[in-house]
Design a protein that fits this description.
This protein has 29 helices and 27 strands. With about 800 residues, the chain is an alpha/beta fold. It folds into four domains: about 190 residues, no CATH class; about 150 residues, Rossmann fold; about 150 residues, no CATH class; about 150 residues, P-loop containing nucleotide triphosphate hydrolases (Rossmann fold, 3-Layer(aba) Sandwich). It has a six-stranded mixed sheet, covered by helices on one side. Strands 15-14-18-19-13-20 form a six-stranded parallel sheet, covered by helices on one side. A hairpin with a 2-residue loop joins strand 8 and strand 9. Bound molecules: adenosine-5'-triphosphate. Adenosine-5'-triphosphate binds next to helix 4 and helix 6. Keywords: ATP-binding, Helicase, Hydrolase, Nucleotide-binding.
């Protein structure tokens, strides 16, 4: 920007804020008009009673009602309903899209002109030296000439679209095609965008504006005045803000490479890789909102986001409501994906060596045997050794060998075990029929069939037979099978040639430590995938299917309002069904139209199978970072992922910029990355704070040292502090921090996944790294959580040098 174009800072900034305020006022006036229209319609409908069909009137009432709710939300919930603006050059074609905006991306040939620089190209704005504020233009063209252009179109971008009475767009929905240049334009490829502005408002009041100038070489004019430029850009302002315990949406500052992922076509599989802090989780959430906008009919209520931990679920679940999509997306932790079967959400973690066995794809074979073997265990009642019935006045008996033959015949089928019960009943009756000699007595097939029908009725009518069947082919539950696997000898039989003896022992002991022989007790996160597999092997109880309602089928004249109002209706409906993220209701949906997997690198093979069952006909978005994987056998996991996705084509994206960690902290993490995944390129950190990470060595009382260090960090930052310890220490750590307040939390290293804090304290890197074969990758996660400050506390095991830097993090 040219110095001589600078304006008096207050006046430029204030003038621009005033201009945006008047636009926002206009938007709210328009919304109020719509609500008055809605109220009038409601009144009118009530007065006129029988005009139109009753159904149409009821529908109109419903829409009017929804419009009312919508305005309430606009007033109360959205902090920055209107958050962006782009000023555009004239486009190549004169075509307009459905939202009233011109569609062309490239400027018209004559949009930028060359003119003699006679000093009259600016409005006499004066240079006052204020950083960042001023007017655009005055380029670096040849001496004596400047490039000038007129702004042909100004678009305001917001959370929802609003059209004026004459159908000119007052606000464009951030997901509409016309809003894409707001996110995509860069100084290298600006397209038609001259200035991008982020507007910050609260309620109905505009507080500030931040501009990025994308074509600084042009002297641009808007309504005959030089285009003003305020601030140093919105991204840095957003990144520097203190963090709370919940994630914010990034709708005002989505970057171009992120936007490409968000707007990628829904079809098949979209895979996104990127290092820590590159916005993978943010992008995944915004993509869900985008898909809903694109195809509400298909996706309303039908998007599942799978998250590794309940902590990450509660951290992220506010983002979609802030984007106006409350209740349309189910966000579930891996431990609560099978709530119906498990009866609860699992939050307990197994030791790594136990998790490795439970998560392995080899468990499928073990579970298959266990599901069938459990029939023989007499879980509810002893398994009868003989069947005695009275047929044609005589006693008929099947002995143990004959019963075993029937059982073998039934199990020859592939149906789930519980669903084989009717077949078991049928083959038992066949066996009794044969044994009774009746088959030989009736040559005439028609007569034989009739006699047989009567025979079946007689036998199955006997209480004894029903009692026998209940005991001999009991309905087995997934929990019972899991409980049965806690017996080491039995498990060894079921796992023969699949698990090693040491693995059998590890698994049996871990199960026995928590579960009764009937499977009652607390489940671990990894047990959930086993239960889900068992439910498939045993057979799921029949459930009613949900009928989808498409809100957009009901549109009439309230087009730009009903979209969000319908979301409200949808949210209420979803709540009634118990779909709302995090919690979970009895009517859990089991198949989704789109499945988004966050932190995909961490799914075990068994978890991939569990997730795949929920997206058999779905399209997918998968985000992750192999360098942060805590799973020990990446190849096995990759194979399970390939199996889950089948032959669907894959579209791959990479995110390369780290928006979370300042460069000073990223350098340290990159050293661990080089050890954990040699050759992997780290993401580029965009910020620098000038504050280096701190190192210290714990005294004899580790707890006191942790507490002191955490207290220091609490003084240094405004927002949150995360203290990351090895999993084995997480309970202790909570006690160490007791009483320090809500801004600080203690986390086991695996729980830190995806979260972020203003400051983080990493306790004993060596202990974290030694906890599992994937420990270095887990340490990499721990070191990449902070947005401002990072402190590393070493113990003797860390071999700290004289600067207190632990061996693992030294530069050499
Ligand atoms: N375009 C953006 N504008 C503003 N903030 C952003 C942007 N992109 C990412 N961020 C912020 O950067 C931080 C990291 O984002 P996010 O948690 O989505 O990264 P991630 O790739 O999922 O990280 P990890 O791999 O560590 O889980 C968040 O605070 C997010 O809001």
């Amino acid at each position: 920007m040219n110095a001589q174009h600078r304006a008096e800072p207050e006046s430029v900034r204030d003038r621009e804020i005033r201009a945006e305020q008047s636009h926002l006022d206009r938007v709210y006036r328009r919304l109020e008009e719509k609500i008055h229209e809605a109220e009038f319609l409601m009144d009118d409908a009530a007065k006129r009673g029988q005009v139109g069909t009753p159904g149409a009137l009821a529908e109109r009432d419903a829409q009017v009602f929804r419009a009312g709710i919508h305005l309430n939300r606009l007033n109360s919930e959205f902090e920055d309903f209107l958050f962006g603006r782009i000023d555009l050059l004239e486009g190549k074609t004169g075509e307009r899209g459905p939202d009233g905006a011109y569609t062309s991306v490239e400027p018209a040939d004559g949009a930028v002109r060359e003119a003699a620089d006679d000093g009259a190209t600016d409005d006499g704005a004066t240079d006052d030296g204020a950083a960042g504020d001023g007017a655009a233009g005055g380029g670096d063209g040849a001496a004596g000439t400047v490039k000038i252009a007129d702004i042909a179109e100004t678009l305001h971008i917001g959370r929802l679209g609003v059209l004026d009475a004459d159908y000119t767009p007052l606000v464009i929905d951030w997901r509409a095609p016309a809003a894409a240049p707001f996110y995509r334009a860069t100084p290298v490829a600006p397209g038609r965008v001259v200035r991008r502005r982020v507007i910050r408002s609260k309620g109905r009041r505009v507080h500030s504006v931040e501009d990025d100038l994308l074509r600084p070489e042009i002297t641009a004019r808007l309504d005959g005045e030089a285009l003003a430029v305020v601030g140093d850009g919105a991204l840095m302002a957003a990144l520097g803000q203190a963090r709370g315990h919940t994630m914010r949406d990034i709708v005002a500052s989505i970057q171009a490479e992120q936007d490409e992922v968000i707007r990628a076509p829904a079809a098949s599989v979209t895979e996104v890789e990127g290092g820590p802090g590159t916005g993978k989780t943010a992008v995944a959430l915004h993509r869900a909102a985008y898909l809903l906008y694109q195809d509400r009919r298909r996706y309303a209520g039908g998007i599942l986001i799978v998250s590794p931990t309940p902590l990450l679920v509660s951290y992220t679940e506010g983002v979609l409501p802030s984007l106006g999509e409350e209740g349309q997306v189910a966000i579930r932790a891996l431990g609560s994906l099978a709530e119906e079967t498990a009866g609860a959400t699992a939050t307990t973690y197994d030791e790594q060596r136990v998790a490795r066995v439970k998560g392995s794809a080899r468990m499928v074979k073990v579970l298959r045997k266990a599901a069938r073997g459990a029939l023989d265990l007499g879980l509810r009642a002893p398994v009868p050794e003989r069947l005695r019935v009275v047929a044609f006045g005589a006693r008929v008996e099947l002995d143990a060998t004959e019963l075993a033959a029937v059982r073998g015949q039934v199990l020859g089928g592939t149906a789930p075990v519980n669903l084989m019960r009717p077949r078991a009943r049928k083959l038992l009756l066949d066996a009794v029929w044969d044994k009774s000699g009746a088959r030989r007595r009736h040559d005439d097939p028609e007569l034989a069939a009739e006699v047989r029908a009567g025979f079946d009725e007689d036998i199955t009518g006997e209480d004894d037979f029903t009692a026998f069947l209940d005991a001999w082919w009991p309905e087995v539950t997934p929990r019972q099978v899991l409980g049965a696997m806690a017996d080491e000898g039995r498990l060894a039989r079921w796992a023969r040639r699949v698990l090693r003896p040491a693995e059998v022992r590890t698994l049996a002991r871990a199960l026995a430590a928590r579960l009764t022989p009937l499977g009652e007790g607390e489940l671990s996160v990894h047990d959930i995938a086993l239960l889900d597999e068992l439910r498939t092997l045993l057979g799921a109880p029949a459930r009613p299917r949900k009928r989808e309602v498409d809100p957009l089928d009901q549109l009439t004249g309230l087009e730009e309002l009903t979209t969000a109002a319908d979301r409200d209706a949808g949210a209420r409906r979803e709540r009634a069904w118990g779909y709302q993220g995090g919690g979970g209701g009895a009517q859990e949906r089991t198949e989704y139209a789109h499945v988004i997997v966050d932190e995909a690198q961490d799914l075990t093979p068994m978890q991939w199978r569990m997730v795949a069952r929920r997206g058999r006909h779905a399209t997918w978005t998968i985000v992750g970072d192999p360098a942060q994987s805590s799973w020990t056998d990446p190849d096995e996991s990759a194979a399970a992922r390939d199996e889950a996705l089948g032959k669907r084509p894959r579209r791959r994206f990479e995110l390369t910029v780290n928006y979370r960690n300042p460069a000073e902290l990223a350098v340290l993490a990159d050293r661990v990355l080089a050890l954990a995944m040699p050759g992997t390129a780290p993401p580029r950190a965009v910020r620098s704070t000038g504050v280096e990470p701190g190192f210290s060595v714990a005294g004899d009382d580790l707890g006191a040292s942790v507490r002191d260090a955490a207290a220091r960090l609490l003084d240094e930052v405004e927002g949150t502090v995360g203290v990351v310890v090895a999993m084995a220490r997480r309970q202790e750590a909570r006690e160490w921090l007791a009483g320090l307040g809500e801004r600080v939390v203690a986390l086991g290293s695996l729980e830190a996944k995806g979260l972020e804090y203003d400051a983080s304290l990493v306790v004993s890197p060596a202990q974290i790294a030694d906890e599992s074969p994937a420990g270095l990758r887990t340490l990499y996660v721990a070191l990449t959580r902070a947005t401002q400050r990072l402190e590393v506390l070493s113990t003797a095991a860390d071999l700290p040098d004289e600067t207190a830097a632990p061996d693992l993090l030294r530069a050499d």
